[in-house]
Amino acid sequence: xxxxxxxxxxxxxxxxxxxxxxxxxxxxxxxxxxxxxxxxxxxxxxxxxxxxxxxxxxxxxxxxxxxxxxxxxxxxxxxxxxxxxxxxxxxxxxxxxxxxxxxxxxxxxxxxxxxxxxxxxxxxxxxxxxxxxxxxxxxxxxxxxxxxxxxxxxxxxxxxxxxxxxxxxxxxxxxxxxxxxxxxxxxxxxxxxxxxxxxxxxxxxxxxxxxxxxxxxxxxxxxxxxxxxxxxxxxxxxxxxxxxxxxxxxxxxxxxxxxxxxxxxxxxxxxxxxxxxxxxxxxxxxxxxxxxxxxxxxxxxxxxxxxxxxxxxxxxxxxxxxxxxxxxxxxxxxxxxxxxxxxxxxxxxxxxxxxxxxxxxxxxxxxxxxxxxxxxxxxxxxx
Length: 383
Known about the structure:
Oligomer: single chain
Number of strands: 20
Largest sheet: 9 strands, mixed
Shape: elongated
Number of helices: 12
Structural class: alpha/beta
Radius of gyration: 24 Å
């Protein structure tokens, strides 16, 4: 008979599929990045998109313990989640917040990006005091007021209900060392600092200045600033494995992705498995059903032996199409496989290793996208 204590039990975190977050890797990456930052420049940890799939709250809590006191998010919901979770320091919303959510900015002590002068007017009309960082468009032509619109930018500093505590821009070609991309990045940096000096000459107090993101720090640390908005590098990766930044750092991947063998079954010669029966066995094989699928963030494009997993330190190719919640793999050459065995999708097993670079290359994307798509039902465990 079920009791009240049974109802209060929680599912086991590592029972099905899960993500492990390395506390030591976070610490090592923070130390390496801080050593490269310009003098008096602080690390602003970008933890948007659930900390690039790593888990915003557990990652931010570890960073708070390491003295990080500034965080960047994309949405107000992400910022409120961090505040409710006890995260201290400045929380900067880098994206758009709708007017109906403006009351939450003051209620949770959040900082809003001003993405245009028209948006600043909306924020000012709200009436309550709001801390803002003013976004300057120096050439990316995404968010921000164009740097040449200096009068409009100045007007934001005189809006009654806005408290400008920062000024920032974003480099859009900082991730490559092509001569034309270097020239564009340097032009953006020059435009940003020229705009800042004009504002300060007119008596505007700009607060914290920040221009550099991960690749900006790795390639142009001399550009300086009060904050550096570190995203993918914080998690021990670059967007692409073959990127060659000017300053290579000893960064360690923070995330491992794991699942379980749910069951084993024989596949006879001539039989197929999975949707569409795409993979027909030429001889008798042993198939393992693994407890993870594309709803957990495993790219479906790794189907039909394009991708593999690690079981007991050996590679097992994926069989047929990856399903929403399950994946089939061939363990014919790993006869010691047992039900309940851990399966590594990203990480190490024995002497074998599968990296986020390998998966993102096979899926024709970048590590940022691959990791950000990790499913919300995967528990994040700090180890």
